Amino acid sequence: MENDVIEIDVQKELVSAHGRMTLTIKVKLLGGELVVLFGESGAGKTTLLRMISGLTNPDRGILKVGNSVWFDSDAGINKPPQERNIGFVFQDYALFPNMSVFNNVAYGQTQGDKCYVNELLQKFGLEELSARKPDKLSGGQRQRVALARALARKPDFLLLDEPLSALDGDIRTSLQNEILKAHGINNATTLLVSHDLTEVFRLAHKVLQIKNGTITGMGKPDQLFLNNQISGKVQITGSIVKIQKQDAFYLLTVVTGMNQILKVTAFQNDIEKLSEGDRVMVFSKAFSPLILKM
Fold first, then answer.
1. Which strand (E) or helix (H) includes residue 2?
2. Mean pLDDT of the 210-228 span
3. For residues 60 and 11, is the Cβ–Cβ distance under 8 A?
4. Beta strand segments in the chain, E
5. Burial of 275 per CB tally in 10 Å (0-12, 13-18, 19+)
6. Predicted confidence (pLDDT) per residue in 103-114, tens digit
């Protein structure tokens, strides 16, 4: 799987918050990569994961992993999810409430290898929790159980749909380490949906930037999100929460991913394309803070 080329060329008609759109994804990935799907809600990121997993069918196209065709609308090929060797971690973790931690992890297996289940529990620090039910676990513990369950079948693909979105602070940072650990256990090709640029820069080998159902950018995080012409040493990302008109300038309030609040001055030509809610980069140049829409 590590050296396989993954070919995705699919289309799917969707209804988003902004109306009808056609999700059109054409890309080739290398096996073993950790790829982050980045974009606004409703861009089609989760639907792409579901099409790869077989939980949602494309309207047309082809999905090929190495020499194995998983979906081909013209040839009438559509492998069911159980034949695609996928590990999927949903945003709400989707653990079975009536099962213990051990049985949740073991459920992901096809061979019934209890030794490997115990190995995963040990690697994710879940041994002492193996008899507990999900309602007795913290959010971070449930996330680790979901990762261990997804890995239990030794998948070729590990699909993660915003698994850290409900967490924050030190827990989120710690569980980013768990995702890196999960990716490294069997070097599965990992696709992670995220809105968090800190996560993107920390985890991604490659980023697919998706907007309105199409790929608008692909590459390493610094290639996509950092302007090479920026010479400042300080670069902080965040969201504009308030734009206030002053006498001869505007005062922008920006909240960063670490919940820091920044006040940045801007002039009329700076804010013409900026609105409250926009994601921006604040950077320093010649000791003056500047702002750039992302």
1. none
2. 84
3. yes
4. 5-16, 19-30, 34-38, 60-65, 68-72, 77-78, 86-89, 157-161, 189-194, 206-211, 214-219, 235-245, 250-256, 261-266, 279-285, 288-293
5. exposed
6. 999 987 766 688
